[in-house]
Amino acid sequence: MPVVAFARWDPIRDLLAIQQRLDRFAPGPAGWVPPIDLHETADAYVLTAELPGLSQDDVQIHVSDGQLRLSGVRPESGVSCEQYHRVERGHGSFSRAFELPHPVDTDGITADLRDGVLTVTCPKAEGSARRIRVS
Questions:
Q1: pLDDT tens digits, residue range 79-118?
Q2: In this structure, is residue 108 part of a structural domain?
Q3: Which pLDDT tens digit goes with each residue over 21-76?
Q4: How far apart are CA 129 and CA 104, in angstroms?
Q5: Nearest-CA neighbor of 59 among 114, 125, 122, 107?
């Protein structure tokens, strides 16, 4: 008798995957959406964004009220042609905003754009986390 393997169907996972594929080809009013990772270390929040083809002048970073905002513009390629057969690299403006759970030291924030990857390091503010004793 043959063995049949069953995989649990997760409709939400499938819908999210479809939405991500659609966003890649038909982004909203922002123009395009660069992929971003945001993780936390013991002393900082670190954001990495894939921004190939952008220069330092094309990117703006703002931190205020516990929110990190990344925005910029990727200009059109400028290639003249009669017809595109496929366009997957978005252009135009983008904007992403992220809430940071704890205050950061705004004077210590650094940003480095190297090989198309932007790394923004936001050190946590001293004394931003403390344990409260219950009495």
A1: 777 777 777 777 889 999 999 998 999 999 999 999 999 9
A2: yes
A3: 776 655 455 468 899 999 999 999 999 999 998 999 999 999 998 899 999 998 87
A4: 11
A5: 114
Q: Is the separation of the CB atoms in 63 and 69 below 8 Å?
A: yes
C-beta separation of 59 from 72 below 8 A: yes
Q: What is the CATH number of the domain that holds 56?
A: 2.60.40.790
For residue 83, being part of any structural domain is answered with: no
Tokens of 42: 């013991």
Q: Domain total for the chain? A: 1
Range of the domain at 19: 11-76+90-123
Place of tokens 């366009």: 87
Alpha-carbon span 121 to 48, nearest angstrom: 9
Q: Supply 73's token pair.
A: 């513009």
